Amino acid sequence: MGLIIRILISAVAVMVAAYVIPGVSVASFGTALIVAIVLGLLNAFVKPILVFLTIPITILTLGLFYLVLNVLMVYLTDYLVAGFGVSGFIAALLFSLLVSVVTWLIDSIIN
Hints:
The protein is mainly alpha-helical. The chain has one domain. Helix content is 78%, strand content 5%. It is built from 6 helices and 2 strands, in the order H-E-H-H-H-H-E-H. The protein has a two-stranded antiparallel ribbon with strand order 1-2. The chain is globular. The two termini are 13 Å apart.
């Protein structure tokens, strides 16, 4: 049950981010659910590998390269999910930051 609630919270965060950030579009709430699932799976399986492979550049940039990895995950989600679009690096960066903050806020209110 907790996983379903987390996915719904993430989908709401995706919808909020799409509403607030110009350059991000989501066709429907169903698409937002798919985006939340795909983004969660990419963050669980692909991102740890990329973090490990990019440790030297992350250290050199004092951790700022981690933001680039977040943008890369958003772009990959954009590529995989029809009905979801991100137009530009800044939009993807703001999207990843806003989804993280909204998910954290809603999750902390519920728990």
